[in-house]
Structures are given as C-alpha cells and as structure tokens.
Design a protein that fits this description.
By secondary structure, the protein is α/β, with parallel strands linked by helices. The protein has 8 helices and 12 strands. It is globular and about 50 Å long.
Length: about 280
C-alpha cells in the first residue's frame, strides 16, 4: 500500500462536534465495506476522542486478495487528519486486524494513533466504560478458527446475495432490507449467540467494577442495560453503518448515518480506483 497523507479537514460549519466517537467493523480491504459512508460521516464529524474498536482493516481478506479504492484511502486520510488536528485516537485491534496485536502490550503510537488492547472511557457525567472489540468472548473465534474463517467467507457471500435481493426489492417498489441482519433475527441459534455475547461483555465490565461496555464484533448495534451494566455495541460499516457518540453532557447516542443523511445502499457508488493482485497475498 502506498503511503497515505492526511486529508485536510472540511469546513467547521458543516461539522458536528462530539466529546467521543466509537467506530468498529469497517472492514477496509473488502468490497462489502461502506467506506464511502464512513468517509462522509468523518468529514461531517469532529470529536475530542476517537475510538477505533477493532476490525477497521480486514487482514483476513487482504491475505487472500487485494482490494482497495479511493474511499478506503479517504477514510484513512480523515482519521490521520483528526489525529493531526488534536483528536486523541485509540485503535483497539479486533480479530480481523489481529496482526496489530503482535505489537501489544507495547505502548505504540503511529502517526498520532495509539494502539491498545482495550481502554476505559470516562464520560462527562462520570460513568466508566470498558472499550474492547469483543471477539475475546466469541467462542467460535477463540476455539474454532477454521469455523470462524468459513463463517467469514459465508458472510461475504451473503453480502453479494443481499445486493441482488435488494435490487429485486427496489424493482418491486419495496424499501431496502439487510438480508443477513434479518436472518440473524429469525434464526434462533443466532439470536441466542448474540444474547450470550452481550451477557458475557456486560459481565466482564461488571467484574472490573465499571459502569458499562462499548464493543463491536457482531455487527449488531445495540444500547441496553443488562443487570445494571450499560451494554453498547457501535455496530458496523458494512450493513448498519452506525456510530456510537458521546455528547458534551455525557449523553450517549447511536447514530444511523445512512438514515440521517438519506444515503442509499443501492445507489450508484462513485467512481473509484481499484488495485487488485489476488496472486500476491498481503502479509499480516
């Protein structure tokens, strides 16, 4: 990958300022990543602290084939620009960008971006939140790596099916619907797995004496209280395209960016430059 320079910030008048922003599961390096949506979000957002909560770059997919475009470049430029402008940027690796965990627990900072295993965020109203990707509490990822890799390929295939499914829905005059998200809600085993994951993350925060937890990993945005512990999942930038934000007074909010901006998942994507070299896998 060529070196990427920081992109200058846009006009302040067009931005919203937050005390903190939490993003995860962008999966840069895959066709499914809605990097253009995230670039739009970042260009309209400023914050004191930006948490990158894992799976920002998809090392699993980049090992098999190379896919990168101008939108992916722009996301990185905007993050670097934020760090250069004084935003504290913390990068907590997930399972798809686990190659960066090799540098932990060394305190490492690159271009103003600090790498860490997890973090504790204190809100303006005094609540302490554990911030971690969450794959540590996914038994398939931890103990059945082959199944996890197969599941990743199946998920990628479902995104292709999802596009054709929604093209048909649009022709029938029906609104966009995420097929994979709908299937997760219908399949009892998937619902139970999500519930177990949420309970485990809340229990981890409780065991550390904290008020809540912010995570990603399962691509399921959520805000709820579990036995007195606040569970916050910031979603993803493949399907939901959501971000968790903290306002100046400590209020937490999940932002559905496509809905807020009126962005279409089936709209024509802007022209982009692709670089693909499938025969030359990227070392992680």
């Amino acid at each position: 990958m060529n070196a990427i320079a920081a992109e200058p910030a846009g006009p302040e008048a067009e931005t919203t300022h937050y005390r903190a922003v939490f993003l995860s599961d962008v999966h840069l390096g895959t066709r499914g990543s809605r990097a253009e949506f995230l670039a739009d979000f970042l260009s309209h957002t400023r914050c004191d602290t930006l948490y990158l909560v894992g799976d920002i770059i998809d090392g699993w997919r980049l090992r098999r084939s190379w896919y990168w475009d101008g939108h992916h470049d722009r996301v990185l430029r905007l993050i670097l620009a934020a760090a250069n402008a004084g935003t504290t940027v913390l990068y907590i690796p997930g399972n798809h960008d686990e190659m960066m965990r090799a540098w932990l627990p060394t305190r490492l900072e690159i271009a103003g971006i600090r790498l860490c295993q997890d973090a504790v965020h204190r809100t303006a109203d005094g609540r302490r939140l554990l911030v971690m990707h969450g794959d540590e509490f996914d038994s398939v990822v931890r103990y059945a790596r082959v199944l996890a890799l197969l599941g990743d390929r199946a998920y990628a295939a479902s995104l292709v099916v999802n596009r054709w499914f929604n093209l048909l829905r649009r022709r029938l005059g029906l609104p966009y619907r995420s097929l994979s998200a709908w299937l997760k809600r219908q399949v009892k085993g998937a619902v139970k797995a999500i519930d177990r994951f949420e309970l485990a993350l809340a229990a981890e925060a409780r065991s550390r004496g904290l008020d809540g937890v912010v995570c990603g990993h399962i691509h399921h945005p959520e805000m709820r209280e579990i036995e007195g512990v606040l569970y916050l999942n910031d979603g993803d930038w493949v399907e939901s395209c959501t971000a968790l934000v903290e306002h100046a007074d400590g209020r937490l909010e999940l932002i559905d960016w496509p809905r807020r901006r009126g962005l279409s998942f089936l709209g024509t994507r802007p022209a982009r430059t692709n670089v693909r070299t499938p025969s030359r896998p990227v070392a992680a």
